[in-house]
Amino acid sequence: MFQDRMGLLSDPNRRRALTNLLTRLNTPICVLCYLAGVAWFMGLAFEPFTLRTYMSENAMGSTMVEERFPAGERALVTAREFGAHKRKSGAMPVDWLVKTMQSRGLEVYTQSFSRRLPFPDENKERYMVRGTNVYGILRAPRAPRTEALVLSAPCSPDNSNNQAVGLLLGLAQYFRSQIYWAKDIIFLVNEHDLIGMQAWLEAYHHTNITGMDWAPLHGRGGSIQAALSLELSSDVVTSLDLVLEGLNGQLPNLDLANLFYTFCQKQDILCTIQEKLQRSDWDSVSGYSQAVQTMALMVLKQASGRPWGDHGLFLRYHIESATIRGINSFRQYKTDTTTVGRLLEGMFRKLNNLLERLHQSYFFYLLPSLSRFVSIGYYMPAFGFLAVILLLRALDLWVQLGALPSVTEDGVGVTDQSSSPSLVSILTPVVISHLTGAALYTLPVLSQELAVQHFPVSETEAVVLTAIAIYTAGLALPHNTHRFMLAEGTEQGWRVLKLVAVLYLAVLLSCTALINFSLGFILALTLVPVAAFVTPHVPKVLSAVVMVLLAPGCTLLYCVFAFQELQEAPVSLIDGWMLFLSVISQGMLDHALYGSLVYPLLALFIYPCWLILWNILFWK
Amino acid sequence: MTYVSLLSPVVCVCVSHFVLIGRTSAFLLLHQARAERFFRSDHTNNWAVLVCTSRFWFNYRHVANTLSVYRSVKRLGIPDSHIVLMLADDMACNHRNPKPATVFSHKNMELNVYGDDVEVDYRGYEVTVENFLRVLTGRLPPSTPRSKRLLSDDHSNILIYLTGHGGNGFLKFQDSEEISNVELADAFEQMWQKRRYNELLFIIDTCQGASMYERFYSPNLMALASSQVGEDSLSHQPDLAIGVHLMDRYTFYLLEFLEDIHPASQANMNDLFKVCPKSQCVSTPGHRTDLFQRDPGSVLITDFFGSVRKVEITMETINLTVPGIPLERFGGEPHTETALAYVDQLPVAQIIHQKPKQKDWHPPDGFILGLWTLILLVFFRTYGIKHLKHIF
User: Fold this and answer.
1) Do A66 and B95 touch (CB under 8 A)?
2) Of A189, A266, A455, A464, which shows the fewest CB atoms inside 10 Å?
3) Closest Cβ opposite residue A59 in set B56, B94, B100
4) What is the C-alpha separation between A498 and A489, in angstroms, rounded?
5) Helices and strands per DSSP (H, E), number in chain A
6) DSSP reduced 3-state for A306
């Protein structure tokens, strides 16, 4: 009778029943959760489950503005001039730009910067970068200089983006003659795209995060409220593409995308996201698959952690920004530069009406199309299901650890010793895994000189191949670490280690998913099954192969192939491999140049975690 | 000789005596009718308190609302010294205004209600609930300039116009505070008790505006609102060049109606109630006249919106030195003027504790008596009858 009054968990009988239930049903529930997580994610793009986008900011109002920008043709003439000067000087025509901006009535300043990359960038063919940014400030006629908006266009070394600079200068001249500006407008032409933008932003905000060498800015506007980056390489466009993903998967406020979309509809311009058109037939299979592809592309781009346009670096400073890219494909209906100029004019007039930073709409979302969105409240459960698997496994291990001492599996003589595995035997694999991770993080860049001397490879290849070598060398660790183990591993030992590993992975993935949902979700997709099923008792060879196939490195490889597939530019195996190598080098460069956190996360935390699980597989 | 005399009670009475002791009865009746029309309302001056309570550029239309009513009221004769204009934000000089120093009420910039002679008494952050209530009740610090005071007396007709963002039972001031309908009703009661108005017309153009006049309980109040509880008041038309909505629907049609009124107009309040029907306004305008003494049909628009000087031209001289002929001549009781006194602000007799009223003594209820007897009996029964003998 006394037992009946005990609580559910403190009653040993009931507790045993619960734990038995947990142990028995653990694997089926884990499998169910995994399938539920994947199904939830796939269901996110299904149109009835998404919401229509809408403008949340009251101050911006609707598209209630009269755009009168007339000078599209003149902008194209300026673009041709710019192109000619660029070809002549080989780099950015600084003097011509300064003179042109001054003639349009702006306050013009330049900034020089230089940076030595840790190793040469083979994609953009640069190693020692030196450049100049040119920017002109249009002061608001009647307002105090407390707030600013930025319109930027990159100065590309080849013949692209001339029209963007031309349109920027044309808009500068038109904006100068208006009196309704309440914020300063900064027209920025940055050289060496992201490196120049990083130098300008660091100087503007008086920070020095990445160790770049830049000259301080002589002229400054107020605090920047919003920024638009323009990429236009043709005289006429058939569609405008909106790029939102920024550094570390950060996204601008959804209101900026809504603003772009409403103005595209007003000006009757075709607008796309991920370069995919919108479809109205959501109940057909092809309509749904298009939405899934768009969302999957956004997830992959966000997971990569690199800024996909010049706007990506603004987001770190809490400045809402987006890149508008003009695309000229084979379509009959073409939009001329004047209309694109009017779109930008309308957007800037609406941003001018803002009284505070954009904050009313969502900061965390996924876009299956420009008119539909999925907010964080709807997509987080997909990751939650995957995280629950790890917690269930941890509970199961805890229960097993609690039950183990009562079952004398080991020999009588070692019962005392094996009742609690020594801390050293648990810590050793953890420490060694993390040391390997640290080696993976630091050695490739440090040892490139050494590698180049001994092998006939370029620096970039040396770095990448060193990284892969260290990664693969980690696979051989379990056989070697046993030498450092003082005692033989026990049944309890691997359970404790796995408990630690599973909880560590859960914390890691959850924290990652909070900041960058896509990265957390993709890593969880492959790592959670590994963490769930690995024990020393599964068939070794088969599970070793499966573990290698689901390792972070191979996940990256699959992502590369999937990305190419989704962009409708599938690659062969060899090309895919080369692309994979370049992705690794770009990841390391992003980390060194802009502070992207994907490479350190993978090298210092995810990879050691996977190594611990690998150790468990080969536990003796 | 011809006298043109300004309106004053004494002269009115003298003149009425003069009129009414005319020789022929027809002459009497005609002048009686004219006199009745003459004294239809007993107000002698007009005031207007026009308040716009919202700031920020996207609330342009509220400022335009207030300024258009200001313009009409000024045109119909109320001078700036009798208008208290409160605007919470400066739209004319806002950095985003493509036409600085103007506030338009019609699109295509037809009508600039800002004009060049606008006088704003409370501007920007001075428009607060406290300042508004102080203006109404007159409790202002001695340093307040006269232009910021509502110097009305008991013969003033006051027009109060409020616009902004509102809800069920409140009106939002400046994005940070609100005034409730109870506060407003109490303020009007204070005004009544201090004899600060003769009659008051209250117009409100906000969402759910009818909730603001629900709680009025003072006499001589008439109220109009642009929408009922649960309805939103909608804006009228956007101007694409300026980029904002210019006016609210109710005030737009009110302005159209007022543009037809001139100082001698005989339009009455029933016409005002018909302004902006549901077909034009989308919301249902409401009004409240139960606290008003006169019939709304006999109230002229110009009684509140204009400042009409009543003038009576006489052809005959009036002897002001001779006391007037007593009123018994045309029957009726002598109208003894009771001396008017203010209501006791501190009713001392009620506050200081008086001797409590003597309540009659009732013998205790039979039931209670019986109950006590029962209890006693039970007590003695339980604990033994021997105790009883100690009592008896």
Assistant:
1) no
2) A455
3) B56
4) 13
5) 21, 12
6) coil
Chain A positions touching B98 (Cβ under 8 A) are 178-180
Q: Which two tokens stand for residue A102?
A: 């001054």
Contact B166, B172 (CB under 8 A): yes
| Residue of chain B whose Cα is closest to the Cα of A60 | B58
Residue A416's pLDDT band, with cuts at 50, 70 and 90, is: very low
Q: By the 8 A CB rule, do B319 and B21 touch?
A: no
3-state secondary structure of B387: helix
Residue with tokens 């300043």: A109
Judged by CB atoms closer than 8 Å, whether chains meet at A179 and B98 is answered as yes
* Inter-chain residue contact A59 with B100, CB threshold 8 Å: no
Please give the Cα distance from A101 to A107 (Å, whole number). Answer: 8
pLDDT grade for B11, boundaries at 50, 70 and 90? low
In terms of Cβ atoms closer than 10 Å to its own Cβ (0-12, 13-18, 19+), residue A56 is middle
- Nearest residue in chain B measured CA to CA from A145: B95
Q: The tokens of B299 are what?
A: 């109230």
Closest Cβ–Cβ partner in B58, B93, B241 for A353: B58
Give A-chain residues touching B95 at CB under 8 angstroms. Answer: 140-143, 180-182
Answer yes or no: do B96 and A65 touch at CB < 8 A.
no
- Residue of A64, A181, A355 lying closest to B240 (CB–CB): A64
CB contact (8 A) between residue A58 and residue B58: yes
- Pick the more confident residue, A64 or B120: B120
Count residue pairs from A and B with Cβ separation < 8 A: 42
Assign residue A610 a region (left: φ > 0; alpha: ψ between -120 and 50; beta: otherwise). Answer: alpha
Q: In this structure, which amino acid lies at residue A354? A: L
Looking at residue B66, its amino acid is T
Strand arrangement of the beta sheet that strand A213-214 belongs to: A213-214, A107-121, A126-138, A184-191, A147-155, A223-231, A320-327, A239-243, A271-273
Contact yes or no for A352 and B96 at CB 8 A: yes
CB count in 10 Å sphere of residue B122: 21
C-beta separation of A249 from A516 below 8 A: yes
Q: Please list the residues that pair with A151 across neighbouring strands.
A: A187, A228
Q: Which of A19-28, A292-301, B279-288, B301-310 has the highest mean pLDDT?
A: A292-301
- The strand pair at B238-239 and B221-225 is best described as unpaired
Q: What region, left, alpha or beta, does residue A97 occupy, with left being phi > 0 and alpha being psi -120 to 50 degrees?
A: alpha
User: Following CA atoms A432, A438, A441, A444 in sequence, which dihedral angle do they give, to the nearest 10 degrees?
Assistant: -70
**Measured between beta carbons, which residues in chain B are less than 8 angstroms from residue A179?**
98, 100
First and final C-alpha spacing in chain A? 47
Distance from CA of A316 to the nearest CA of B (A): 29
pLDDT digits (tens, 9 = 90+) for A272-304: 999 888 777 777 888 898 999 999 999 999 999
- A180–B96 C-beta distance less than 8 A: yes
Q: How confident is the model at residue A408 (pLDDT cuts 50, 70, 90)?
A: very low
Amino acid at A318: H
Tell me the pLDDT band of B2, cut-offs 50, 70 and 90: very low
If interface means Cβ-Cβ distance under 8 Å, which residues of chain A face chain B? 58-59, 61, 64-66, 140-143, 178-182, 349, 352-353, 355
Per-residue burial over A247-269, b = 16 or more CB atoms within 10 Å of its CB, e = otherwise: bbbbbbbbbbbbbbbbbbebbeb
Across the interface, which of A61, A65, A140 has its CB nearest the CB of B95? A140
CB A588 within 8 A of CB A466: no
Confidence class of residue B39 from pLDDT cuts 50, 70 and 90? low
What gap in Å lies between CA B149 and CA B134, rounded to an integer?
Answer: 9
Chain A: residue whose CA lies nearest to B92: A180
What SS3 class is residue B203? strand
Active site residues of B: 165, 207
